[in-house]
Amino acid sequence: MAAGPGAFDLSGLGPEDQGKLMAVMQDLQIQDSLRLYNELVQRCFGECVDSFRSKKLDGKEEACVTKCAQKFVKMAARVGQRFAEQQQQLVSEAQRGSTPPS
């Protein structure tokens, strides 16, 4: 059975090694999510919040933060999608290159 994009064949590893690898991958995924969240907060806060007159954002600031966050999330999703497409293309090219000619 062929693995999908981003999937790894772990059958060559023992159960303990598979568990360790999956734990590392989950940790990396959490770190990446936190990095993206921090980048979003820094970027949108820096661009949208001008003053600290009150505890709450004013209407203009809130609209700006909302728009900025939406754009950032769309951009991150698109970058992830393009990365997956390129990875799949590389896998396909590697498989074609390793297939003996008929």
Describe the overall structure.
- The chain is an all-alpha fold and 102 residues long.
- It contains two helices and no strands.
- 73% of the residues lie in helices and 0% in strands.
- Helix 1 packs antiparallel against helix 2.
- The longest helix is centred in the last third of the chain and has 40 residues, at 59-98.
- The protein is elongated, with a radius of gyration of 21 Å.
- The two termini are 22 Å apart.
The global form is elongated
Task: Tell me the fraction of residues in β-strands, as a range.
Answer: under 5%
Radius of gyration: 21 Å
Domain count = 1
CATH homologous superfamily identity: Mitochondrial import inner membrane translocase subunit tim13 like domains
Largest sheet: none
**Architecture, according to CATH?**
Orthogonal Bundle
Order of helices and strands: HH
CATH class annotation: Mainly Alpha
| Mean pLDDT, all residues | 84
The name of the CATH topology is Helix Hairpins
N- and C-termini, Cα separation? 22 Å
Summarize the amount of helix as a percent range.
over 70%
Question: How many strands?
Answer: 0
Low-confidence stretches: 1-6
What count of helical segments does DSSP give?
2
**What class, by secondary structure content?**
mainly alpha
Main location: mitochondrion
Organism: Galdieria partita
Membrane topology: Peripheral membrane protein
Subunit structure: Heterohexamer.
